[in-house]
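Hi R.,

As promised on Friday, here is the backbone we talked about, encoded as structure tokens. Could you run it through your design pipeline when you get a chance and send me back a sequence?
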């Protein structure tokens, strides 16, 4: 029953993340990417805060009382990696389509075991290499090679995917040691919002009249994506191991591409569709092959 609930949490999380790409893209019509990011994560922080007080107030004292330094050593990288992943993704949407950004983002799935191998010396399954190859060829077909702006945007997403992978890895570590999904979501939102605000002060201007014009997009990306979805991710990863969880979450690329086609009329060409399928196929291969071998040996 717990696994079923966790699976539903991950599916809903994926649907929110996929459609949130639309809000992220249209939410920069009047404000910059750093302002949008800061506003959405402060909204996410406020959205999660009541749940922390309702469900985890006592648990926080019990679990963190003698482990404050250990919690900080994990929550700081969790928040920082999320911040970097979000920033690169958000800025990329100024230069490339929603589908490109979404599908290049899910490169984090095959990246996770590669990073774990180099950081923690865990063995790599053979399926990682054909998966990476499929993703690279798919990326070539998905990206418009003749358009320098699109290439730049896609490159930003790929850099961001490294940080998404690190975020997934450290989320797995922190949720194992601290059963505080809402509090972890609260703290990572605060870290991302604060770091994004520093970038606003340096590179952009604070204009509340312009921010007000993006209210719907900020609320959607903040309450649902920054608040609810990340909390759902934590609940999902609590009872489902990283591999199947990554399979479900990788479908955000498909949801985003369909949403962009319906809402923004961003139609993909044949090459782009083949590229999307290769990336999705590579991602699924990297996750399904180890599970299949484990079950049928």
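Update: got your reply. Pasting your designed sequence below so it's all in one thread:
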């Amino acid at each position: 029953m717990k696994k079923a609930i966790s699976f539903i949490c991950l599916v809903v999380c994926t649907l929110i993340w996929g459609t949130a790409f639309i809000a992220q893209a249209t939410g920069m019509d009047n404000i910059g990417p750093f302002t949008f990011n800061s506003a959405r994560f402060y909204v996410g922080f406020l959205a999660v805060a009541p749940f922390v007080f309702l469900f985890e107030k006592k648990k926080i004292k019990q679990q963190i009382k003698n482990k404050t330094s250990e919690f900080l050593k994990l929550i700081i990288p969790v928040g920082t990696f999320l911040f970097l992943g979000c920033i690169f993704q958000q800025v990329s949407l100024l230069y490339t389509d929603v589908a490109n950004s979404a599908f290049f983002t899910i490169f984090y799935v095959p990246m996770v075991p590669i990073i774990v191998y180099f950081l923690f010396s865990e063995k790599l399954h053979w399926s990682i290499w054909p998966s990476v190859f499929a993703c690279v060829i798919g990326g070539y077909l998905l990206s418009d090679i003749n358009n320098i702006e699109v290439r730049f945007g896609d490159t930003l997403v790929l850099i961001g995917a490294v940080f998404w992978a690190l975020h997934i890895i450290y989320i797995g570590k922190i949720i194992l040691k601290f059963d505080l999904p809402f509090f972890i979501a609260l703290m990572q939102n605060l870290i991302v919002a604060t770091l994004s605000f520093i970038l606003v002060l340096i590179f952009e201007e604070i204009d509340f009249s312009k921010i007000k014009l993006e209210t719907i997009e900020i609320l959607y990306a903040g309450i649902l994506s920054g608040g609810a979805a990340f909390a759902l991710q934590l609940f999902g990863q609590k009872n489902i191991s990283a591999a199947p969880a990554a399979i479900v979450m990788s479908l955000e690329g498909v949801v985003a591409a369909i949403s962009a086609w319906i809402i923004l009329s961003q139609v993909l060409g044949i090459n782009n569709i083949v590229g999307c399928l290769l990336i999705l196929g590579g991602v699924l291969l990297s996750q399904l092959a180890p599970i299949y071998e484990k079950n049928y040996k």
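One thing I noticed while checking it: The chain has one domain: 2-296.

Thanks again,
M.
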